[in-house]
Amino acid sequence: MNTSSNNQRSQQPPIIGISGTFASGKDTLSKFLSEHYGYFVESSGDLVRRLSMARHGSIERPDLRETAEYYRKTFGPRFLIDTQIKHYNEQKQNFSGLIIHGLRALGEAKAVKEAGGVLIFVDAPIEERYQRMLSRKRDQEVKLSLEEFKRAEALEWHGGDTDSDFNLAGIKQAADIVLENNGSLESFLSEAVNRLKLPPAGQNA
Description:
It comes from Candidatus Chaera renei. By secondary structure, the protein is α/β, with parallel strands linked by helices.
């Protein structure tokens, strides 16, 4: 890698935390930043799924919520984030930084910012997100009606005022960058790159 590329990499945020509403584009943004900027991606959702399978033998959304709440309230609101940062640190020499996506509790967002990270919140109109959820066919989500989808989201929008509670509203308010994914994929990713002050994709290799 040349000096210019090293300088560009050194200016990237070392940690990016990505939160947002259901099916808003968090995974898409994480994958893009990983592929084009060398980030290692840790998914809070994947970690909770593994813990939920061990705890309940299920990854249905109510079990996922219970599992996340159990670990946050038993081991502290930073438990998931600290676990993911520890995993990253074991292999950080191979990557330019860490992305943690799927933050749901305000304490997780605070942990990312305290670690020197940038916090992004992604949103989009709920009807568009519902259709995206149906198309990705994950975790039995295709069985949810639009009204059930809205009720499930409401439980995570503001579940309480402690750092361990689900609180998407609080995370959005605390975010350094809020992205509205309501246009083309290209414009969404371009805005993310611009807001993060990254070089255009393809110019940082």
